[in-house]
Amino acid sequence: MSVPAGGVGEVASGDAHLRETCLATEVVEQGQFLQWRRDRVQLPDGRQAVREYVVHPGAVMIVAALPDGRLVMERQFRYPVGRTMIEFPAGKLDPGEGGLACAQRELLEETGYRARRWAQAGVMHPVIGYATEFIEVWLADDLIAGERHLDDGEFLDVFAASEGELSQWFRDGLLTDAKTVVGMMWLQQWRSGAWAPAWVSVADAASGTPASAPE
Fold it and tell me: By CB count within 10 A, which of 8, 24, 167, 209 is most buried?
């Protein structure tokens, strides 16, 4: 099967001597939403090597703050690691879906909350050694509670926790999800005033229609 080479992004100026060039690519397995590829690449010194990796559609994570300062959190059993994890709300992008639309949809579906203000904090690449996955980090506040709409076969608990509780759980090894740890860093920088998010207001929180440009 002939497919475009995956996982090969832009090379920063001055990094050409580190670049690996795809010579051939093979789809080894196509799952419901993940794809396993095996590429033959040329190394910077001219030799060849094999790279195996997973193609992922991308995802979002939402750091949503309640009026009392606590954060909207989830507990969900993650089969690959065989344990229930403490996480910020998150979910994968649907085909053609933008990051903000996905963040709004996932927050509503999983927690029942809508947010009147949103800001994209950044992007993280959680598993750069073997997957193309990226996760957009979104901040949300001025929340409105409502009814959640879980996907079929999705089971998770929603609860609220303080920033201090998250830090304690991280220190004690109870919170080990990498994306949530990154979200905690963004939360701390935002609340300390070190980083100023570019907030976008939402005109109709009931419909999730964006209203204004970033402040």
Answer: 8
Q: Please, are residues 183 and 61 in contact by the beta-carbon 8 Å criterion?
A: yes
- pLDDT tens profile 32-89: 999 999 999 999 999 999 999 999 999 999 999 999 999 999 999 999 999 999 999 9
Q: How far is CA 30 from CA 3, 80, 154, 178, in A?
A: 12, 18, 22, 26
CB-based contacts of 201, cutoff 8 Å, min separation 6:
116, 117, 210, 211, 212, 215
- 71-78 and 209-210: which strand pairing? unpaired
Burial class (CB in 10 A: 0-12, 13-18, 19+), 160: middle
Which tokens in the block code for residue 52? 């195996």
CATH 3.20.20.30 fits 59-200, yes or no: no
- Determine the 3-state secondary structure of 43 from DSSP: coil
Distance CA 12, CA 147 (A): 45
Q: Where are the domains of the chain?
A: 16-55, 59-200
Dist CA 127 CA 131 (whole Å): 6
